[in-house]
Amino acid sequence: MHTDEVTIDAMRHAAQVLRSVTSSVHDEARALRALRDATDAALSERLAEIEDSGAYRNEDATSAVTWARRELRLDAGETRARIAAARTMADLPRARAAFVKGEFSLEHAKLLTFSMKHVGVDETVEMEEHLTTVARAFPAGRLRKIVVRAKAIRHPDTLDEAWIKGMNRRDIRLAKTIDGWHVTGFLPIDVGARMNAVLEALSVPREAGDTRTASQRRCDGLDELLERVLAEGLPTDGTVAPQVHVVVDAGTLKDALAPDPGAVFTAGPPAELVGFGPIGRELVKHLTTGAALTPILVERIGRNERILDVGRAHRHATAKQRRAIWFRQEGTCARAGCENSVDHSHHTIHWSDGGPTDLDLLEGLCAACHRHEHASEPRAG
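The chain above was modelled as a monomer; its predicted structure follows.
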């Protein structure tokens, strides 16, 4: 089906949903989102056509970018990104079909463009089906993680280059204004990860009806942190260990700390700095200084039921189970669409119903989702 026909179908569907007296507000929101994504795809293809054909000259413009700025009020970066996305889709037919139908957003398309450029054309074409499936089902952040991971595996030498480059740019400034302070600067990878870990932990909504925005919660979290530091005194001896998590294969860790071609463990995929992404060997060495190392037996080595499954012997998850759950879910709440960090270990078969405290029957939930889970349980009549 031609792009025009797909776009018109999306418009008709949205109109039908909006006119129907049986449509819920949720149906209307879904239809409008699909229409927006479909029209984004159509507009991107039109801009690429205007650029490639030189049609912008027909209206006295020097390029498609200048024409779009004047006629569509798009800035130059947005126009170039749309044109690049349309050109990317020409090489990814499955992704293009989903894009023009409004099944994923322009942000997803931009990430596919990034993959073509930084991971590789052949590699992205090979991953097309998987990337398209993820784009259809998840927000752009999930697709970004996959693409960044693929880039790290394909080009591992660039990881430490990025860290060193960031170290050279490090800077932070506070400028006093009439109504507060203006913060500017740039944080290196490891420093930013520490800041992000602290702010995320302090800014999670703790109760229903919290109307603060995410930025307001982060600011309140930073305020709480500063109050604690000032109340307990400033650290002066450098003995406070940063609460930052690095997930790394035993072989990759051995290769970073003590390279040995004859070692039993061979280097695996790059290490993952939680909250940032893949990192190189030199940054791994830097972060292990003074850090606590926690081994976790993952499934590809084999389950260790004697350690991780405790049946009915304990109601609450053990420390090792909590670490395994955190590792399995990458520190994120198990509920679809929730990006909060894991706060509680939840029995999928309730303890009161005889559910054992076994790893396969536990999931990590944030405080809000855990509270909602128990609030929605049927009460005995």
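The chain is about 55% helix and 10% strand.
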